[in-house]
Amino acid sequence: MTDEKASPPGRRGVTLTDIARLVNVSPATVSNAYNRPDQLSSALRERILQTARELDYSGPHPAARSLRRGVAASIGVVLTEKLSYAFSDSAAIHFLRGLSMATEAVGMSLLLMPASPRGDSAAVRDAIVDGFIVYSMPDNHPDVEAIIARRLPTVFVDSPRVMGMNFVGVDDRTASRQVADHLLALGHRRVAIVSFALKSDGFRGRAGQERQDSAHRFVTRERLAGYREAIEARGMAWQGVRVEECTSSQQAEGLAAGLAILGDEPRPTAIIAMSDLLALGVLEAAGRLGINAPGELGIVGFDDIPAAATSEPSLTTIHQPLTEKGLVAGELVFASFESGRSVRQGYERVLPTNLVVRASGGHSIRPT
Question: Which domain holds residue 205?
């Protein structure tokens, strides 16, 4: 078996053979510690990995076997959802469009990778790529740790926000407070929230305070915090606000959440959704139940996808520059290639947002 060298500069002298010699095992055994962990006892694997950490060796470079120059000309894009999400979610589509514009400009390709379903992270450990874009992942997902361990140029987009790592996103808390303030200024006092998934356990339904507090995505926490700040600033109790959790940001999920919320008595006069697709689902639910929106129900979203402007009624929402977000993320990865700067520079780019007032929020009402 040939030695495989770690890719990051400064560690090219450390090989599998060096680790094997120190642990007194074969190079194949060291390779198994990374690639076939089920072939080793947990104690032996930990001894190998500890020795590797002491030598600052991050593991075999997957490209070494097939790319002599160690250049894959590809960026790995790790998505929190199933791969079909990239082709069905309008916000994701626009983000990937911007990212594609950046990669096309330098002649690179994109490798779309859904998060490891079993949390084994083998896909990201073995991906033959030159860098990573991590798009809206949970804080504690094993893939996040595995990506950081690769020590390749990496940019986190929206979530998580990892100290010392590059980040591109928007000020979700301020934007969410702004859209909630808009509804409250119209006089709404019975308000409900349609939320992204708070955890990765497939739960759908009313989310209590404990579940809200343990939300595992930075974006979700920030948007909940913004809504709560706006509501409490009006002297209202957050505990009286129904938070309905969805399993994904799809219109069908918003429909189910809307039907559940609108069955309450008294029902809310306004619903705030964490995305436009969820808001469009709530709008559909109102139509099925014969509830006039915005006459009887104000609805707002977040993202400003194209459908927000063409829905009936048109959707009040927060505009965020989705395509620009992808473009900036790609350019930031490539800047690391060109300059040789550390991938742990911790550069953050927070893009601007603005409130887009359309018809769905309704007109001023008497507070109820």
Answer: 172-320
